[in-house]
């Protein structure tokens, strides 16, 4: 093992043994995601890592795993935090530890700091706010895409019920291009409790459903607007649709429905400040 020091970023540690205990957090990340284990998660790629490094109020970067071939350009491409541990490995060691071929060549272990309560998060939103609420979205690609749309149209936060998947799952972060680390969010509680707290905070809730008679193009945005989305198959629970204002995105009668991530992009575009 050898160490290389720089003036600004501490030491780089060269590791040549895949069983080195310092690499344990990176092991088998395809099958064994870090979410749920002491609030840690895996981030990958330069764009996502720079978002992680800039989100110090909500996350902490614990260590970095980088290919030897990527080391020379590391400081030019990443806004590295001071004193972060950086482990350097050859390609075969990284692939063996991760459990798949890591073509991006850069991984990091991040740790989520305690999230605020839902009332606190809502109270911190601006007087005029646009948020997204999700019910039962368990597909990591969809969650990642919804976060990407939320960032693109500057939604103020994303709220997820307890049946949604964690947005810090490795694939969700990657699909979101780091937006899951950028857009404030809350995950937990039953959707009924979430709706009660949204209404108590003054949010008008608009539930998207293909069965609604009301076109989304005929809806006027409220100052505090929440867009509520459910799963693609079952959609939102009927007992919620009966007591909320519903709307649909008009589309061909010859096709069943839109992907929920696509629907979120259309709705966010219509209700964003850019219109």
Descriptive overview:
The protein is built from nine helices and twelve strands. By secondary structure, it is an alpha/beta fold. The protein has two domains: 3-112, Ribosomal protein L30/S12 (60s Ribosomal Protein L30, Chain: A); 118-271, SPOUT methyltransferase, trefoil knot domain (Alpha/beta knot). The strands form two sheets. It has a six-stranded mixed sheet with strand order 1-2-5-4-6-3. A six-stranded parallel sheet has the order 9-8-7-11-10-12, with helices on both faces. Helix 6 links the parallel strand 8 and strand 9. Mean pLDDT is 91; it is low at 1-10.
Helix and strand arrangement:
Elements: E1 3-6, E2 10-14, E3 40-44, H1 46-54, E4 59-67, H2 74-77, E5 85-89, H3 91-98, E6 106-112, H4 118-123, E7 129-134, H5 140-152, E8 157-160, H6 170-175, E9 185-187, H7 191-200, E10 204-208, E11 224-229, H8 238-241, E12 245-247, H9 260-271
Parallel strand pairs: 2-5, 4-5, 7-8, 7-11, 8-9, 10-11, 10-12
Antiparallel strand pairs: 1-2, 3-6, 4-6
Helix pairs in contact: 5-9
Low-pLDDT residue spans: 1-10
Q: Please name the CATH topology of the largest domain.
A: Alpha/beta knot
The total beta strand count reads 12
User: How far is the first residue's CA from the last residue's CA?
Assistant: 57 Å
Percent helix among the residues? 25-40%
> CATH homologous superfamily of the largest domain - what is it?
SPOUT methyltransferase, trefoil knot domain
Structural class based on helices, strands and sheet pairing: alpha/beta
Number of domains: 2
Return the CATH architecture of the largest domain. Answer: 3-Layer(aba) Sandwich
**Oligomer type:** single chain
């Amino acid at each position: 093992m050898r160490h290389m020091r720089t003036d600004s970023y501490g030491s780089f540690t060269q590791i040549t043994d895949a069983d080195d205990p310092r690499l344990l957090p990176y092991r088998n990340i395809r099958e064994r995601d870090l979410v749920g284990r002491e609030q840690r998660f895996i981030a990958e790629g330069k764009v996502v890592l720079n978002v992680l490094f800039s989100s110090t109020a909500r996350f902490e970067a614990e260590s970095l795993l980088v290919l030897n071939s990527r080391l020379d350009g590391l400081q030019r491409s990443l806004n590295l935090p001071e004193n972060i541990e950086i482990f350097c490995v050859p390609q075969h060691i990284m692939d063996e530890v991760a459990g798949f071929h890591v073509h991006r060549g850069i991984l990091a272990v991040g740790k989520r700091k305690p999230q605020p309560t839902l009332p606190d998060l809502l109270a911190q939103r601006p007087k005029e706010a646009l948020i997204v609420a999700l019910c039962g979205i368990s597909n990591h690609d969809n969650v990642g895409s919804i976060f990407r749309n939320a960032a693109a149209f500057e939604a103020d936060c994303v709220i997820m019920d307890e049946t949604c998947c964690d947005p810090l799952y490795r694939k969700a972060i990657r699909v979101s291009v780091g937006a899951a680390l950028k857009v404030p969010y809350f995950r937990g509680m039953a959707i009924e409790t979430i709706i009660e707290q949204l209404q108590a905070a003054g949010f008008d809730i608009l539930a998207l459903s293909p069965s609604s008679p009301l076109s989304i193009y005929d809806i006027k945005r409220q100052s505090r607007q929440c867009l509520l989305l459910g799963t693609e198959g079952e959609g939102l629970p009927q007992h919620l649709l009966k007591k909320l204002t519903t709307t649909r995105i008009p589309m061909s009668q010859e096709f069943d429905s839109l992907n929920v991530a696509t629907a979120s992009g259309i709705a966010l575009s219509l209700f964003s400040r850019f219109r």
